[in-house]
Write a structure and sequence with these properties.
Elements: H1 4-40, H2 47-55, E1 68-70, H3 72-80, E2 86-92, H4 97-113, E3 118-124, H5 130-143, E4 148-152, H6 160-163, E5 173-177, E6 183-188, H7 198-210
Parallel strand pairs: 1-4, 2-3, 3-4
Antiparallel strand pairs: 2-5, 5-6
Length: 214
């Protein structure tokens, strides 16, 4: 006769073994499920790291605007380096209202005609002290004057207006040189009978660009 106590113990052992197998299977399935999820869905990049990458993207470097102090003799050397090009020289000052008002035309002409052989030079007739130099440079930067910029200087006993030949010390004053370096046109406010417009200056630039060096 089978002992009922033995049967109960046998059933209990089977049940415990089955339960252990079942629990182990659930745990393994859970691990497998988590692994699959993590593999198919990569983690999002931390916001801080993403911001750092954006910060590393730098804007393109702009052209540096510079200001060179030069006397009349040094200015002649600057002109000589432009040989083969038509040169427009804009004599101006920060205290000259029409100079400031119309300076943007000089910038536009440089952009418009540079590829046709135009070289632009601006010459500030302001004082050469440090504070004024900074004011001049600040204006040039604001106007995006991407060409040669000079601040006129002279010996202590001389006036740059005289050494640079500014008629009557009147500004604005423009000069146009041909491709050989010869002065071919001058626009001066010194003579009220010979008033000019910005259109007159541009027309003279266009005519000079059409001429070829002999």
């Amino acid at each position: 006769m089978v002992d009922s106590k033995s049967i109960y113990q046998h059933i209990t052992r089977i049940g415990s073994h089955t339960l252990s197998v079942l629990i182990l299977g659930i745990i393994c399935w859970g691990c497998s499920s988590n692994t699959s999820t993590e593999t198919s869905q990569p983690e999002a990049e931390p916001a801080a790291q993403s911001e750092n990458k954006s910060a590393e993207i730098k804007p393109e470097k702009t052209v540096e605007i510079t200001l060179t102090l030069s006397d009349a003799e040094g200015f002649k050397e600057i002109l000589a380096k432009q040989n083969g090009k038509v040169v427009l020289v804009d004599f101006w000052a920060t205290w000259c209202v029409p100079c400031i008002k119309n300076f943007h035309h000089t910038v536009e002409w440089n952009q418009k005609y540079a590829d046709q052989g135009l070289s632009v030079i601006s010459v500030s007739m302001d004082e050469s002290d440090e504070e004024t130099q900074q004011a001049v440079l600040k204006f040039l930067e604001k106007e995006d004057a991407q060409f040669t910029n000079v601040l006129a200087t002279a010996a202590d006993d001389q006036d740059p207006m005289d050494t640079f030949g500014i008629d009557g010390g009147a500004l604005p004053h423009y000069r146009i040189y041909d491709r050989t370096g010869k002065l071919i046109k001058k626009f001066s406010f010194a003579d009220p009978d010979k008033l000019f417009t910005q259109e007159d200056i541009e027309t003279a630039i266009q005519e000079a660009l059409k001429q070829k060096p002999e």
